[in-house]
């Protein structure tokens, strides 16, 4: 690799990042095809041509109702989604991944009309796009009578097919879904798309997928550089071969040619290759200078993409800022992501390490927003299962009809519209790892029995087969409800409760451990500022606002604190000093000044009083949620991210509002 091809200026690095295109060219993006029958079959025919360039997964699905789709798509690990018709429009509004729509070209229309007119004298074309201009020009060229109808949703498509059948059209041209509806009415159908259009779509998707992955790697490298105040940053492939670096930074270490930098990359790879967890450091000598080095995965989800290495001069001493903050918080600087100062959380941290060493099931309980999933991930990182996957599901978000196929997987031909070749279930994907069942209390009783058997037997049987597959999995569950009370009420199986409650972690609400508020706020402010790419005076902010933050009762716990700190960070983008926050905080976080939430350790003598006191807060919260949903056209994932809450909490709040 030439020096000029791999280098960038420091300004370029901070503003937009730089990743050498050699990395991107070697990357095979994962393309998720969301199609239906004929379209899926058509893409299946052309997809082998792209086997060396992309991983193509096909999901037969039509979004006929306003269903939750993140529970389906989040497990695909896709870089880009391709679809057609109403499916693509639905997906574009509801997921954060790039979505490409299969275009209908003029050539496709001409070819379809030519074939159709040779078969029938009356033709109805039903499409998702407006093709009136070309149809007006083409209609005189064919002997058949040609009509056209346009739809926006799957329900509209169904209605138009019904009308076409009633009017006696013997042949319908349209999308795969339209063709399927026509065939159900015993009417001939012709697919509007062609294999040429599918090839073009896949080629475009590969380019978009590579670009998306490159941006992910760039963000990861940028975050590592900013988080560690590094003198130099390098990117290597998994074997330690240099891929990209910041030339201006490395010149400060006396390395101004590619050969020296490649040697440094190999040296870093050897020095840190035995370190299993990220954010751990090692002392190295680079170009005769003592340095502190750290290694990060370019992409935590895809370790084959290589590593980001950061360097600081100064030998084996810790970074001053990190050391001082760790001492102030009363915790070790590399204790994972658990931030605390209270004795209560110190004991929980010890239990996390102890429970991680066992194979026993762990039940984590606590109010919503206390960080139960974060604790579960720490158990995974500290356990003997850390080299396996951490698979998390929300038991209340998976539709009951998809529960078994999602968790257990299925064999080829297990049911109508099942994917050819079958599918690996989430439980099997967690083999040798940790399987986290969030909101376990929301499982219907019928599904509780199936989970009980899996936990007891440590075996699963995919749908459509009698073969049992052994599982080596550590189960971690979480609930914000009293499972013992649910057992007493007959809404939770007693045998499952006893099976889950082997090792118990009770995470206290934030108002019961006020010593942890400032350490958590400190960590959140640093992390969010890094994500926004800005520097903020964290110590000055906490000096001005610490008393206010500690006085609030935090009914939403750590998640609510995260929401408030992000508002502070975004406010500081347009304001110069932390001192101005005193004037602005009542406007950007009015809940902190509500009389019902003031004082230290607020009284919670009765559930009725608490509910009544929090009614204004809930109303304000719902107003913010609805505003965010309108802003992002109903996309719940983007709305939740904007609000600083998880998608699960957003779903729960909306469900509570419907009651």
Automatic annotation (TrEMBL):
Pfam families: AAA_lid_14, HTH_8, PrpR_N, Sigma54_activat
InterPro entries in alphabetical order: AAA+_ATPase, AAA_lid_NorR, Homeodomain-like_sf, HTH_Fis, P-loop_NTPase, Sig_transdc_resp-reg_PrpR_N, Sigma_54_int, Sigma_54_int_dom_ATP-bd_1
Keywords: ATP-binding, Nucleotide-binding, Transcription, Transcription regulation
GO BP, sorted A to Z: regulation of DNA-templated transcription
Matches recorded under PROSITE patterns: SIGMA54_INTERACT_1, SIGMA54_INTERACT_3, SIGMA54_INTERACT_4
GO molecular function: ATP binding; phosphorelay response regulator activity; sequence-specific DNA binding
Residue ranges of every copy of the Sigma-54 factor interaction domain listed in the record: 338-570
Protein name: Sigma-54 factor interaction domain-containing protein
């Amino acid at each position: 690799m030439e020096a000029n091809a791999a280098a960038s200026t420091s300004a370029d690095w901070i503003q937009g990042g730089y990743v050498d295109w050699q990395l991107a060219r070697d990357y095979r993006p994962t393309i998720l095809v969301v199609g239906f029958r004929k379209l899926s079959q058509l893409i299946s025919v052309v997809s082998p041509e792209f086997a060396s360039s992309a991983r193509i997964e096909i999901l037969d699905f039509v979004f006929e109702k306003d269903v939750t789709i993140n529970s389906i798509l989040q497990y695909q690990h896709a870089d880009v989604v391709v679809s057609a018709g109403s499916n693509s429009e639905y997906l574009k509004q509801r997921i954060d991944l790039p979505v490409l729509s299969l275009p209908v070209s003029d050539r496709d229309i001409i070819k379809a009309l030519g074939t159709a007119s040779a078969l029938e004298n009356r033709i109805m074309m039903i499409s998702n796009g407006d093709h009136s201009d070309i149809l007006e020009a083409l209609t005189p060229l064919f002997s058949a009578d040609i009509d056209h109808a346009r739809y926006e949703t799957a329900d509209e498509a169904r209605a138009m097919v019904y009308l076409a059948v009633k009017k006696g059209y013997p042949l319908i041209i349209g999308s795969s879904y339209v063709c399927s509806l026509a065939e159900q009415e015993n009417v001939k159908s012709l697919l509007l798309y062609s294999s040429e259009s599918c090839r073009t779509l896949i080629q475009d998707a590969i380019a978009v997928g590579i670009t998306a992955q490159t941006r992910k790697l760039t963000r990861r490298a940028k975050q590592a550089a900013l988080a560690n105040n590094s003198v130099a940053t390098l990117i290597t492939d998994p074997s330690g071969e240099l891929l990209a670096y910041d030339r201006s930074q490395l010149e400060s270490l006396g390395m101004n040619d590619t050969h020296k930098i490649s040697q440094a990359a190999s040296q870093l790879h050897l020095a840190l290759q035995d370190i299993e967890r990220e954010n751990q450091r090692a002392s190295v000598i680079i170009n005769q200078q003592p340095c502190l080095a750290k290694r990060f995965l370019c992409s935590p989800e895809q370790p084959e993409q290589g590593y980001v290495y950061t360097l600081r001069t100064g030998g084996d001493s810790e970074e001053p800022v990190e050391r001082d903050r760790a001492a102030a918080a009363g915790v070790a600087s590399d204790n994972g992501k658990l931030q605390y100062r209270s004795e209560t959380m110190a004991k929980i941290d010890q239990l996390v390490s102890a429970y991680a060493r066992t194979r026993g099931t762990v039940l984590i309980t606590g109010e919503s927003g206390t960080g139960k999933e974060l604790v579960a991930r720490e158990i995974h990182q500290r356990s003997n299962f850390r080299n396996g996957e951490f698979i998390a599901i929300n038991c209340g978000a998976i539709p009951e009809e998809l529960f078994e196929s999602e968790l257990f997987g299925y064999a080829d031909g297990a049911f109508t519209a099942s994917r050819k070749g079958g599918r690996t279930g989430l439980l099997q994907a967690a083999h040798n790892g940790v399987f986290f069942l969030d909101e376990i209390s929301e499982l219907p009783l019928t599904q509780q029995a199936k989970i009980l058997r899996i936990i007891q037997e440590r075996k699963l049987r995919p749908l459509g087969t009698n073969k049992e597959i052994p599982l080596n999995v550590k189960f971690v569950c979480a609930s914000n409800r009293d499972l013992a009370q649910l057992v007493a009420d007959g809404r939770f199986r007693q045998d499952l409760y006893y099976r889950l409650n082997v090792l118990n972690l009770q995470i206290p609400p934030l108002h019961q451990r006020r010593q942890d508020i400032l350490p958590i706020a400190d960590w959140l402010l640093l992390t969010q500022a890094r994500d926004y790419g800005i520097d903020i005076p964290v110590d000055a902010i906490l000096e001005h606002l610490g008393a206010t933050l500690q006085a609030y009762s935090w009914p939403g716990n750590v998640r609510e604190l995260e929401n408030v700190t992000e508002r502070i960070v975004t406010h500081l983008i347009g304001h110069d000093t932390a001192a101005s926050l005193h004037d602005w905080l009542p406007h950007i976080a009015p809940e902190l000044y509500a009389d019902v939430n003031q004082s230290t350790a607020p009284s919670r003598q009765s559930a009725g009083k608490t509910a009544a006191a929090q009614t204004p807060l809930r109303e304000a919260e719902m107003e913010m949620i609805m505003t965010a949903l309108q802003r992002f056209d109903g996309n719940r994932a983007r709305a939740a991210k904007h609000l600083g809450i998880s998608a699960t909490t957003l779903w729960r709040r909306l469900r509570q509002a419907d009651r």
